[in-house]
Q: What sequence folds into this?
C-alpha cells in the first residue's frame, strides 16, 4: 500500500518506485527511519522502498546523496512542493 | 527520476542497467550536483566516457553533446576536441580506474603534460568489474578477486607509499582531489572546483561494486555491507585507520597558472601566421 504525504509536514520525500533497485542505502543512512521496504515488486522485479513516516524527515538529504538510481527527491514544504 | 536526472539526463537511460547498490550513480549524481550548483546548462558541457562500468553507465546519458572513446583513449580524443570547442565550453570525462590508471595512463599523462582543459572523474571500483571482477591497479592489497583467488599480490597505485595522484601532480596537473561515493557536499565542492579550474583537473572517486568486488572480497553481495565498508575507510580527517583507507579532500591545487593547451596552440598558430604574412 502507498503511504500518504500531507501538506503540514516540513519536508516532502518522494521515492520513484520504478527506478528503485532495493539497495537499501536510504534505509541505512536515514537518521529518522522514514523509509520501509515495500511488500510488493516494481516492474523491474525489485521491492521498492516506501516513505512511511514523511513527517519525521528533517531534510538532511542523506538519502538523496546515497540513492544511486536517481530515485529520491527531498523538497522543503508539504506534498504540494513536489 | 529525481529533479537532477530530469534536468540533465536522457529519460530513456535512467534507471541505468547498473547492478543494485552500484555506487556509480552516486558518483554521477555528485557531478550533476556540481554542474547544477555552478549554474551550467546542458549546452555548456561536452561529456566524454571511457570503457567499463563507469563508461557504460554514464555513456550517452547527458542531454547535451556526448562522445565515447575506446579503452583508455578518451583523453587523446578530448585533446583534439578541445581545439574544436569554444574555450568557455567545459569538458567532463567519466572513466574507470582501469581506463585512467592502467590502460589509458600514458594518454592521461600526456593530457596532463599539455594541460588540456578537461575535468576527469575517475570512478574507481577496485578493478575490472564489468568483465567479472579481475584485479586492477587500485585493488586493495590482499583482496580476493576473480584473478587473485589467494589475495591481491600485485602492488597497486594507492598503497604502500605509492599514490597515483603524486605522479599526476609531478606531471603538471593543476587540480587533484580524492573522494568516496559515500561522501556528500565536500565531494560536490571538490568537483565544482575541478570544473572551474582552467586546465587539467582530476577527481578520483572510489565507489562500491557490490556484485563482483565485494561479493568476492567481503563474501557478501548485500549493498549495505559494501556501503559500511567504504564508509569506515573514508577518511576526510586523516585518522589512523587500519588497512586500506582513503584520505579524502583536495589533494593538490596549483597556485601558479600554467598556460592551457588550446590557448597556447592558438597563440602559437597566430604568431606563425603573422610571421608568414610579414
A:
Amino acid at each position: 500500500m502507498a503511504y500518504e504525504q500531507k501538506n503540514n509536514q516540513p519536508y516532502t520525500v518522494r521515492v520513484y518506485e520504478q527506478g528503485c533497485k532495493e539497495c537499501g542505502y536510504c534505509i541505512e543512512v536515514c537518521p529518522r527511519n522514514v523509509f520501509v521496504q515495500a511488500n510488493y515488486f516494481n516492474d523491474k522485479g525489485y521491492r521498492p522502498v516506501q516513505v512511511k513516516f514523511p513527517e519525521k524527515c528533517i531534510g538532511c538529504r542523506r538519502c538523496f546523496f546515497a540513492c544511486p538510481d536517481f530515485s529520491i527527491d527531498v523538497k522543503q514544504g508539504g506534498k504540494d512542493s513536489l | 527520476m529525481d529533479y537532477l536526472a530530469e534536468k540533465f539526463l536522457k529519460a530513456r537511460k535512467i534507471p541505468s542497467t547498473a547492478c543494485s547498490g552500484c555506487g556509480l550513480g552516486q558518483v554521477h549524481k555528485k557531478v550533476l550536483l556540481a554542474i547544477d550548483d555552478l549554474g551550467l546548462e546542458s549546452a555548456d558541457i561536452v561529456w566524454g566516457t571511457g570503457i567499463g562500468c563507469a563508461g557504460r553507465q554514464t555513456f550517452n546519458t547527458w542531454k547535451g553533446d556526448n562522445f565515447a572513446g575506446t579503452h583508455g583513449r578518451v583523453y587523446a580524443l578530448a585533446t583534439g576536441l578541445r581545439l574544436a570547442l569554444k574555450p568557455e565550453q567545459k569538458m567532463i570525462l567519466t572513466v574507470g580506474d582501469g581506463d585512467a590508471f592502467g590502460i589509458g595512463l600514458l594518454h592521461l599523462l600526456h593530457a596532463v603534460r599539455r594541460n588540456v582543459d578537461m575535468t576527469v572523474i575517475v570512478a574507481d571500483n577496485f578493478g575490472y568489474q564489468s568483465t567479472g571482477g579481475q584485479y586492477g591497479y587500485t585493488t586493495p592489497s590482499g583482496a580476493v578477486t576473480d584473478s587473485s583467488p589467494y589475495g591481491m599480490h600485485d602492488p597497486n597505485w594507492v598503497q604502500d607509499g605509492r599514490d597515483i595522484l603524486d605522479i599526476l601532480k609531478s606531471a603538471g596537473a593543476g587540480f587533484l582531489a580524492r573522494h568516496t561515493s559515500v561522501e556528500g557536499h565536500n565531494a560536490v565542492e571538490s568537483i565544482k572546483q575541478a570544473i572551474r579550474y582552467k586546465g587539467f583537473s582530476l577527481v578520483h572517486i572510489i565507489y562500491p561494486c557490490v556484485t563482483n568486488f565485494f561479493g568476492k572480497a567481503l563474501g557478501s553481495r548485500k549493498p549495505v555491507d559494501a556501503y559500511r565498508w567504504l564508509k569506515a575507510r573514508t577518511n576526510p580527517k586523516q585518522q589512523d585507520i587500519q588497512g586500506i583507507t582513503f584520505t579524502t579532500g583536495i589533494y593538490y591545487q596549483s597556485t601558479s597558472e600554467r598556460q592551457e593547451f588550446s590557448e597556447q596552440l592558438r597563440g602559437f598558430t597566430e604568431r606563425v601566421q603573422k610571421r608568414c604574412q610579414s
In short: Residues 109 and 171 of chain B are 7 Å apart (CA to CA). The beta strands of chain B are 45-49, 65-68, 90-96, 118-124, 175-180, 200-206, 234-235, 246-247, 249-253.
